[in-house]
Fold:
Amino acid sequence: MKTTEIKTAELNTQEFISEKTGEIAATVGKGLAINALSGGVDSSAVTMLGHKALGGRLKTYFIDNGLMRKDEPQKIVSLFKSLGVAVEIIDARDKFFKALSGVIDPEQKREAITQAFYKDVFGRLVKESGAKYLLQGTILTDVDETVAGIKRQHNVFEQLGIDPQQAFGYKIIEPLVQLRKDGVRKVAAALGLPESIYNRMPFPGPALSARVIGEATPERIEAVRLATAITEEELAGIHAFQYLAILHQDRVTGIRQGKRDFGLQVEIRCWDSADARMAKPTRLPYDILEKLAQRLVTEVAGVVSVTYNITAKPPSTIEAV
Ligand code: XMP
Structure:
């Protein structure tokens, strides 16, 4: 079934919220539901919608997959606590690194993340909690790109002919699937989320594993986590749609202390976009790029080369994996 888009300009947030909370309440009935909060605008909006609809019958988890940005689990859990929403952290780091071990191909990596999330982690949480439903923040761009065969986004099933009930043992509710990113931001603001969340830049479901080309080992994830933190600090004032650091698989020859160093290379991307469907590289001032490169080669062990992507989407995509 084709999903009807609600265009952002035509979106009435109050009507949307009351319609979706009504639908969630009617679908879940007297039962229980669970959801995973990552701290992104989509999962944050779903968390608030779900709690509005179900109150204590929605259990919210933060899945610590070991692939999140620096200090993310604690920051997000304490922010939601201040909004009156209790979130439990699930330590699933070993499970995800095991699933990613030896995986190099981008689509296989996405599939490994999907299976670890939905079968392994949520499968167990659903069984333990007695919930029959998982609420999640899939948006229309995720569906479009998956159906078009561009990228298998980690959270798309039915549109690919996969029945989550059969595959994983529970049903999935997707209240945001008619919206694009800019529409979700409006809904998130109307739900009372702070600006740090509703204007937060997007971050992919496969998290930092989408920012490592080749195998996502704990060491390589640690390197890209540090590169990400530095990049986010240095580009924060630019107000671009999304900016990121990518760790490449290939090594390149560099020089350290007068000696050859066959080291790591990091690619920076910074995008101007409204909804992630099309994007252009931001024309960053050269001195900002220089400072960023200087910090990356000094602070991230082993990095000898930093590049800036100057290709638009399409044919590039926002993430490299
Ligand atoms: P791409 O890389 O396809 O990304 O141009 C478009 C937007 O989607 C984000 N992204 C994802 N979001 N699950 C998600 O929830 C995913 O598997 C995924 N992959 C990419 C990306 O960060 C960008 O904002």
The longest strand covers residues 259-272. Residues 8-198 form a domain with the Rossmann fold fold (CATH 3.40.50.620). The mean pLDDT is 96. The chain is about 40% helix and 15% strand.
